[in-house]
Amino acid sequence: MTYLIDGLQYANFSEKVFRQMREGGVDAVHVTVAYHETMPELIGNLCQWNRWFEQFSDLIVRATSAADVRAAKDSGRTAILFGLQTAHPIADDIGLIEILHQLGIRIMQLSYNNQSLLATGCYEDEDPGLTRFGKQAVAEMNRVGLVVDMSHSADRSTLEAIEASTRPITISHANPAWWHPAKRNKSDEVLSALTDAGGFLGFSVYPHHLKDGSACTLDSFCGMIAEAASRYGAQNLGIGTDLCQDQPDSIVEWMRVGRWSKVIDYGEGSASNAGFPPMPSWFEDNRHFGNIRDGLLAAGLAAGDVDGIMGNNWLRFFEESFGPAPAT
Amino acid sequence: MTYLIDGLQYANFSEKVFRQMREGGVDAVHVTVAYHETMPELIGNLCQWNRWFEQFSDLIVRATSAADVRAAKDSGRTAILFGLQTAHPIADDIGLIEILHQLGIRIMQLSYNNQSLLATGCYEDEDPGLTRFGKQAVAEMNRVGLVVDMSHSADRSTLEAIEASTRPITISHANPAWWHPAKRNKSDEVLSALTDAGGFLGFSVYPHHLKDGSACTLDSFCGMIAEAASRYGAQNLGIGTDLCQDQPDSIVEWMRVGRWSKVIDYGEGSASNAGFPPMPSWFEDNRHFGNIRDGLLAAGLAAGDVDGIMGNNWLRFFEESFGPAPAT
Fold first, then answer.
1. pTM recorded for the entire structure
2. Domains in chain A, please, with CATH?
3. Chain A residues with CB inside 8 Å of B103's CB?
4. HEC profile for A165-216?
5. What is the ipTM of this complex?
6. Which one of B51, B93, B102 has the shortest CB-CB distance to A103?
7. Would you call B39 and A44 a contact, using CB atoms and an 8 Å cutoff?
8. How do residues B42-87 score in pLDDT, each as one tens digit?
């Protein structure tokens, strides 16, 4: 059985997008349910997802485990797994980590571009590493089975999270800086440390993370993945598209600025390119995963490695990561 | 296998109380996790319970299903099931009903003494029945598997909830008014309608609900249960002690007054008897369920009926009530 799993999407979700997931044969998607939201706002977003699960019960189903993903595939539906891009909903309350898990959240970023109460984001000038609360939070996340995601974190914080975590962590959506040196892409040192510790990298298709941006070729993207597989091993690699399909540009502004700044921060963009960049022609929506699969085979990866990268590796990672830590 | 289950406690929970549950052989307890709390305050209470589950993992375990209760018994621990005595945490948001279920809440009262957004409480002068929101909420509770509890509701609202609900509801802690005509006890009409529809009654040991109060005899209490079994059938009856062990009197004031009144309301008490009344000598804590079992046998109930009332009936009710409604 081969699974097709996307490790990160924040589309403007709708019946159209859910139908495209089915058309594309997508078995599971990790979706972002909050950026800068407070806990009550997060709960409001979860209410919206519950409505969608009820309205579109023939297309999507809530999932909190690898077993749920398997059951979703068996029933011809796409499993939806929840994650947070910031730790904002827990504020400074370690008890809320288990509450998040009980609400079905399975992945949480410790910081998002900026300094958080837990760790440093990749746009800060200084990175003092995991905070006192951050270290406690990582241990608690390990205990309950909430995966640490460092996609938007700075290098030192990321290396310290890899070291502090007793369970493999993830960078769910980013690419190697040796291919495209964007601030959001990751150094070889970080990616080696991540994968050496069993951690998981999802390759992003978001144009700011791609060499040549929206003009990036499928060959270039898949060649990069083949090189990453030779450096880090294929077993801890997957796809995390960062698909933001159908979102208005106000959303990328919300992602970047939240409530923390009264002036615009362009993040990966610029004044002349402030909105969402156009996706590459070979990956515009959930129906295009076949292009990536074909590209990986054309790049010379073995069929088993391609199956792993397209989803089987994520499934194994979910299996090992989402339950409570084994008793010691 | 016979189970010992208590359908309602709001003790000042502590290691001492949890150890007494084990000493008493209590397999499961439905505990109140909120009265007048808002959603964030409820979540804070759930955090406290998570801490207790971690600290006292040899004594208690979180449970959300009959299967969890069985597993708890198999592991020599007491299963803790969560319920709310008011609908206050959902405010006027129907989406929060499923969120409550996802947080592990399995039972919710529609009103508590006063008028709520959903139904009328038993201390109001007027009872206009289920509100527009209340009717929608009952349907949603039926859908997700959150049990309607009318213990503190007024008669018309209760009868309308029984009628509106497509799944059996409960009065988890009250006694028949024909035995002791307290405002919180229930009319024969209500109890007949409840049990005719498969609904469940838990008998309370809270002194204000007992004939002769704290001086009530075990014979009188168990004779009342035997009479109820002959009127309503034994299969929908159980125990819901309403045990408030070790709570300071400030808590009964909170239960009664919450934030809705600046003047004291004595509820079932009085100015001269404002605090928690002393429990009857034959039921002071979780170690005393054996007295009730013995009393029921002495009252002439068949052994199988006694097993049912002491816990097996609640277990069956949990089994049928806590999952999503079967597809229609």
1. 0.91
2. 5-321 (3.20.20.140)
3. 99, 102-103
4. CCCCCEECCCCECCCCCCCCCECHHHHHHHHHCCCEEEECCCHHHCCCHHHC
5. 0.85
6. B102
7. no
8. 999 999 999 999 999 999 999 999 999 999 999 999 999 999 999 9
